[in-house]
Amino acid sequence: MKRIDRTTKLWIRNRSDELAAANGCKFDPERAAYAVWWIERYCRLYEGDQSGEPLRLRSCDAVDAQFPIITHGAWEEAKEEAIARVWAYAEARGDGLHCDWQYECITRIFGWMKFSERWARPIRRFRRGSVWVAKKNKKSPTLAAVALHLTIGDGELGQKVFLGAKDGKQVKLNACKHAIEMVRASEELASECDINEGEGRIVHGPTRSLLAPLTSGQENNAKAKEGLNGSLIIDECHVVDRAFIKRVSRMGISRSEPLQLEFSTAGFDPMSYGKEAHDYGARVVLGDQPGGKVDERYFYAAYEAPQDLSDEDLAADPLKYARMANPAWGHTIDPAEVLDDYNTSKETITGLTEFRVYRLNIWATAAATWLRTSAWAACYESYTAEDLRGRRCYAGFDLAQVLDFTALVCCFPDEDEEELFRQLAWFWLPEQTARERAEKAPYLDWAKDGYIKLTPGDVCDYETITADVGAILDQFDSVELAFDPWNAEATTQRLAQDYGVRRLEFPQTMTRLTEGTKAYERLVRAGRLRHNGHPVLTWQAGHVKVKSDYSGNIRPIKPEHGDHRTIDGIIGGVMGLDRAMKAPPPAKGSLFIF
């Protein structure tokens, strides 16, 4: 482990940074200062009252007042003051002053470096990343300025930078428009660049570099995207197609410092690529901690209210939570206007949902689901099937009709503590279903990593599932297998006959499911229903909803037929937990009864 220098320590924000620093990554104040200086020196705004003004990458009020923006001269003349601003900002942030997001993110993205043996010089640490901030926080001009810096300011010959979005109209009227007008507003840049406004392209003559739009909707030239070589800046990635991201995933692989950055607000689709990127970044900042992901090359910054914020907590102090998601508070964000927006929006369910998404940066599904994301995450524990081999368990079995998931979830009461349980989940899916729905969820990746077993063909393979379930239950002291008799009668009879499994009919009615559903929720909230991070089970926990009746009964709601957002694993878990909490332990000497 390498020694971490004082400068680098000032720029460590999370566990991922700590691991990167220990692995040889360092923060270079000069590289960070240069990126900020170049953007502020050459990029100007073109909309509203600030049209023609330099784009100020705000840090905090005290530092910005101490260091006026530098709009003339060369880098060598400005370097000393620009670097001094880096130090002043680090000190101010360390003192707890409120900071905006632009200066913070730009300095971190361009300041973190690592020596490359391949290129025989330090290169940028980050290759990919995402920045999440509520609307009206200056995303569009900032991402356009970053794209221009990569195209021109970096000085790389033959650079290609693409501005990506869902459709051509969006990217040309937004990000590309900002970039083009910034070039026009700068005498120096305008003299060196050729602009094709119709195509949204900018060519920088001295470096022979290109800035151009690239959209996920251009299916007619989809294959062409696979051969692109450069950097990519994506606007509002919460609506960008997963197929588009897959095609450009290796863009810049032969370059020394390619960068794929995404700037976005939260969205409404829990299975979008954007939600995946958001959640991936949240795992990256945890590093090697539980639930984390070690990836020192991924940058992540999220300015957001808690994703599981209740309507009651929001109503108690809406400005408190709005400030979390709006770092430009008091600059471009007017607190009075935000409060007025909240008071208007809260009158309807749709309005409040949109306020949470656009103003608080909360994913819509997080506001409407049954299980809180934070509570589910707190239930994570690292264990495997081997760790639980031979232990008493109660299983819930949700068998697919024809095309969908089949789920088996085993619930294990803890041997020492009451009301502490662990879950293990298995899933099966027809291969054709997985391929047809691959754009909606990462089924194929889950299958590759062993979290789903794909069965051949386009219908549920009951023979394979029966054999697999029997083998799984044989590893444990399997007391009962609860199942819905409507579809699984024949399969569970085979399990009883061939594997000695004791089966128990568990109709999917409100009165039958309510006790297990309430217990499931209570134990998740208390951190007493553990899971081992199975991504499919976690995905289903993230969008499952419940239905209630006039008597206070509740049960999980199965989605409409054909909806890819299934909840089979949660249903199986509810059934298994219900039996684990009610059923007496098996008689000694009798593992299976039928």
How is the secondary structure organized here?
Blueprint: H1 6-9, H2 15-22, E1 26-27, H3 29-42, H4 61-66, H5 75-94, H6 102-111, E2 112-116, E3 121-124, E4 128-132, H7 139-153, E5 160-165, H8 168-173, H9 175-185, H10 187-192, E6 193-196, E7 201-204, E8 209-215, H11 222-225, E9 231-235, H12 242-248, E10 260-264, H13 273-284, E11 298-302, H14 311-316, H15 318-325, H16 335-345, H17 349-360, H18 364-368, H19 373-378, E12 392-398, E13 406-413, E14 421-430, H20 431-436, H21 443-448, E15 453-455, H22 462-473, E16 477-483, H23 485-499, E17 503-505, H24 510-526, E18 529-530, H25 535-541, E19 546-548, E20 554-556, H26 568-582
Parallel strand pairs: 4-10, 4-11, 5-8, 5-9, 9-10, 12-16, 14-15, 14-18, 16-17
Antiparallel strand pairs: 1-2, 2-3, 6-7, 7-8, 12-13, 13-14, 19-20
Helix pairs in contact: 3-5, 3-6, 7-9, 15-16, 16-17, 22-23, 24-26
Task: Write up this protein.
It contains 26 helices and 20 strands. It is an alpha/beta fold. The protein has 3 domains: 6-302, P-loop containing nucleotide triphosphate hydrolases (Rossmann fold), CATH 3.40.50; 311-364, no CATH class; 375-582, Nucleotidyltransferase, domain 5, CATH 3.30.420. It has an 8-stranded mixed β-sheet with strand order 6-7-8-5-9-10-4-11, sandwiched between helices. Strands 12, 13, 14, 15, 16, 17 and 18 form a 7-stranded mixed β-sheet that branches. Strands 1-2-3 form a 3-stranded antiparallel β-sheet. Helix 15 crosses helix 16 (335-345), helix 16 (335-345) runs antiparallel to helix 17 (349-360) and helix 22 (462-473) crosses helix 23 (485-499). The longest helix is centred in the first third of the chain and has 20 residues, at 75-94.
